[in-house]
Specification:
This protein is α+β, with helices and mostly antiparallel strands. The protein is built from 8 helices and 16 strands. The strands form 3 sheets. Strands 4, 5, 6, 7, 8, 11, 12 and 13 form an 8-stranded antiparallel β-sheet that branches. A 5-stranded mixed β-sheet has the order 3-2-1-9-10, with no helix packed on it. A 3-stranded parallel β-sheet has the order 14-15-16. The longest helix has 14 residues. The N and C termini lie far apart (70 Å).
Length: 300
């Protein structure tokens, strides 16, 4: 069996192939008996003597084929390993780990295997202990970190209704904790990891930047508009360093930050039903002012 991936096409035994390919067409090209297995989410075809596996979502069209280079004992593994030849851009690569290591591209975030890509086809290498276990060949789909996330998910939209004009950011995030994470009234429920995948203007590295405020994240919450009609829903605020809002503002927060301290009680005028407050991010004067307003207040 000879595979060739060139700048012109992908060939199996000198026959040009495009994915997806009909299973009957693939059988004709391989000219060898295969076993059909029905898995939970797809159909797998195994050519034992060739060391080849094919994957199909509907049992008719094959989206990828895999050549097995080492013996495996999985349910659908072929009994023999691949003994054919795979040419990538006229270079035989089946056992050339160094070639793969120098030329591969990552298919997705966190991909430590990678693939050789040419002519819209990817040859994805499964690597273990500096050796290639298998190579999966399929149509190449460039990695897009925002795949599956609506383009406007975290776009701040102007509300056509009365909004709360917050004076104090620390107070605002305490209210967001209630309305977004506890009551689910503010949508979307902000998720830091989802946000950085969605954010189109630069790549945000949480592992590097998550020990401090990320400017774009903080700005999102500053710009977020909160309808005035939700104000009556807030009867209590409970500040804790482990609250969702704080963990999304600084992922690796130590709990001692003062960026979210409430320094003004002016926003209380919008929340007539707020009767109880547990504080850990607030100035001492705020505690006293809350008490004077008749709010049952305590320090965490």
């Amino acid at each position: 069996m000879v595979l060739q991936l060139t700048s012109n096409d992908f060939q199996i035994n000198s026959v040009s192939v495009e994915f997806p390919i009909g299973i009957n067409q693939l059988k004709d090209i391989l000219k060898s008996t295969c076993i059909r297995h029905k898995a939970k989410y797809n159909t797998i075809f195994t050519w034992d003597e060739l060391g080849v596996i094919a994957h199909s979502k509907n049992g008719e069209l094959v989206e990828s084929i895999t050549i097995e280079l080492t013996s495996e004992t999985f349910k659908f593994s072929p009994k023999e390993t691949f003994t054919g030849i795979f040419y990538f851009n006229n270079k035989e690569i089946t056992n050339y780990y160094e070639t793969y290591k120098e030329e591969h591209v990552k298919l997705f975030e966190g991909d430590d295997s990678g693939a050789l890509v040419l002519n819209n086809i990817s040859a994805w290498f499964y690597v273990r202990e500096n050796a290639i276990d298998a190579i999966e060949i399929s149509k190449y789909k460039p990695y897009n970190r925002s795949d599956g996330i609506p383009k406007d998910l975290y776009t701040i939209k102007e509300l056509n209704e009365e909004i709360i004009p917050f004076v104090d950011f620390g107070f605002k995030v305490a209210i967001i904790q209630v309305l977004m994470y506890e009551k689910g009234l503010l949508q979307p429920k902000f998720d830091l990891y989802e946000f950085v995948k969605w954010y189109p203007h630069r790549e945000i590295d949480i592992e590097e930047e998550g020990y401090d405020q990320i400017a774009e994240v903080t700005q999102y919450f500053k710009d977020l508009q909160i309808p005035k009609r939700f104000a009556s829903e807030v009867t209590e605020i409970y500040q804790d360093g482990g609250n969702d809002i704080y963990m999304n503002l600084i992922r690796f927060s130590g709990g001692w930050e003062d960026e979210w301290d409430i320094i003004s009680s002016d926003d209380m005028v919008h929340f007539p039903n707020l009767k109880k407050a547990t504080l850990c991010y607030a100035k001492d004067a705020i505690y006293d002012e809350f008490i004077e307003m008749g709010i049952d207040t305590e320090w965490l």
